[in-house]
Amino acid sequence: MLPDPNGILLVDKPSGPTSHDIVDRVRRRFGLKRVGHCGTLDPRATGLLVLVIGKATKLSERLMGDDKEYEGTLKLGIATDSQDADGAVLAEKPVPLLTSAQIEGAFAGFRGDVLQTPPMVSAKKIAGVPLYKLARKGKEVERKPRLIHVFRFEILRAEPPEVDFRLLCTKGTYVRTLCHDLGEKLGCGGHLSRLRRIASGRFRIENARAMDDVEGWTRQQFAGNLVDPMTLNLPV
User: Fold this and answer.
1) Residue 105 phi, psi dihedral angles, 5° rounding
2) What architecture does CATH give domain 68-199?
3) I want to staple 54 with a disulfide (CB 3.0 to 4.6 A). Which of 6, 11, 50, 210 is the partner?
4) Fold matches, 7-65+201-232 and 68-199
5) What tens digit of pLDDT does each residue of 35-74 get?
6) What pTM, to 2 d.p., does this model score?
7) Which of 4, 12, 42, 113 is catalytic?
8) Could you confirm whether 42 is annotated as catalytic?
């Protein structure tokens, strides 16, 4: 019997499963005791999910604090209760004829330090209860704005009602809330329709493996594909 593996695994999460689902699938597939992840992705979102295995789970909090980079799409004209495409539609408005300068001006307002109010449909806890559980009961509670920092917020394509973007931000940033707030600023509402994480700290999506590939490995292949934290000066 091979010893329990230790290390970091970069997974390209598909759309659909939760981050916890991916952790559970890896744990069960390879008979592991300790598996964690370093930053939640919403079920619909795709991209880089950093998994920590065995002794490397001690690094979870440290790696979770890394800055994150995303590519996504803002859909203007439709606001939803979850601020993404999974939510119920709250309002629909016609999208005005927006110039490139108007869109760029709106994006510029969300660069640097930003006070952001967590959405009701989120895993953030109030008095120990996740907000999404309160939202399911039709309850809305006061949430304190928190400070995030947006290092870079670039427009890749602006063809309203869609705007593609690339974002580099601090941990805990709700990208869907940025999209919601951008929609409000542009006067027509909006939501996040697509999100892909392309980097987390030093790790990039180019080095991640698809879940289908991972689940096809033997236990020995799995161990051989883990990143040794010591090679990254991350002692465990």
Assistant:
1) -60, -40
2) 2-Layer Sandwich (3.30)
3) 6
4) yes
5) 999 999 989 999 999 999 999 999 999 999 999 999 999 9
6) 0.92
7) 42
8) yes
